[in-house]
Amino acid sequence: MRIFLTGGAGYIGSHTLLEVLSQDHEVCVFDDYSNSTPESLRRVETLTNRKFKTVEGSVLDPQCLTQALQEFKPDAVIHFAGKKAVGESVEKPLMYYENNVVGTLNLLRAMEAANCERIIFSSSATVYGDPQFLPITEDHPLGATNPYGQTKLMAEHILRDWAQSRPTASAVILRYFNPLGAHESGRIGEDPNDIPNNLMPYVAQVAVGRRDRLRVWGNDYDTPDGTGVRDYIHVVDLAKAHAAALGFGETHQGCETINIGTGRGYSVLDVVGAFELAAGRAIPYDIKPRRSGDIATCYADPAKAKRLLGWRAEHDLADMCASTWKWQSQNPDGYDS
Ligand code: UFG
């Protein structure tokens, strides 16, 4: 298959790129490197010994996007390009709506011009808001609590309407829970631009000495140890879910929404403990007040992914911590190391 990856140089994009290349697909990566670096692509090329096309461009540039798609003529698009920091989205909502909503519109228009009707979209468990029941199934009520979540919900609506308007189109919306970990080689991984907001990159930077102490946002939640519980999913499992969705999209028509998680929740202190074991060093932390907008517990019902995609998560929390540590210790300053 010919696959067009927007945002293919990013954290999830680069792991998915590696996975689809190893399955012999032809790939074109479209990325503006605003939150990534071409170094991740060079490393994937070395790891897979496969060549692929790259186009430097933004999803906010319809002309560039259309030209890239018309030249490459993909069978399917995987759309990762987008902004993803919750806090930043509250400060710069217009930038988020523009990148994530207008960017998706531009992509669908360019796909129409290139006669491509299959798309896999990166959505997020954030669209479930504060969970009303657990585990979360795909028919759980939706509701975003911040602009980032709103943009994901809007893009989902657009994709659903688009797929409905075209009898032979396929849109597969993957709602990720909390991605962690890195490729087993330790050559690619998560490399946040600024101070990390998310738990694992922060823990990893404390372990490697780039930050002093972890701040645990609240230990008074209604959870076994009082800290927040999430469904952490290994990024390599997540990449494999995209590969499975590509196969599913070949015969599927319409729009399908699928949770990608493990079905198991771990607390912040569980993650800290697992990371300490993997890295063989202590992670000093302080308990701080709750972070605004955080929820107590969130984990997926992943049964639909098993049923439709034949996919389920294979890696556990220990694998996620060990691979993160390998990546972080070999690349203490990320791709600049
Ligand atoms: N946490 C800390 N200290 C930190 C960072 C996080 O204690 O420095 C805690 C949080 O309070 C939470 C847990 O670790 O209990 C996980 O927090 P993350 O920021 O890693 O992840 P979130 O669940 O808040 O959000 C993530 C993504 C969102 C996405 C959401 C989907 O950042 O983009 O998962 O559920 F929408």
Which descriptors would you attach to this protein?
single chain, 337 residues, alpha/beta, Rossmann fold, seven-stranded parallel beta sheet, two-stranded parallel ribbon, 11 helices, 41% helix, globular, binds uridine-5'-diphosphate-4-deoxy-4-fluoro-alpha-D-galactose
| Neighbour order of strands in the largest sheet | 3-2-1-4-5-6-11
Number of helices: 11
- CATH fold naming of the domain at 2-183 and 232-262 and 299-314: Rossmann fold
The main β sheet shows up as: 7 strands, parallel
CATH superfamily name of the domain at 2-183 and 232-262 and 299-314?
NAD(P)-binding Rossmann-like Domain
The residue fraction in helices comes out at 40-55%
CATH class of the domain at 2-183 and 232-262 and 299-314: Alpha Beta
Bound molecules: uridine-5'-diphosphate-4-deoxy-4-fluoro-alpha-D-galactose
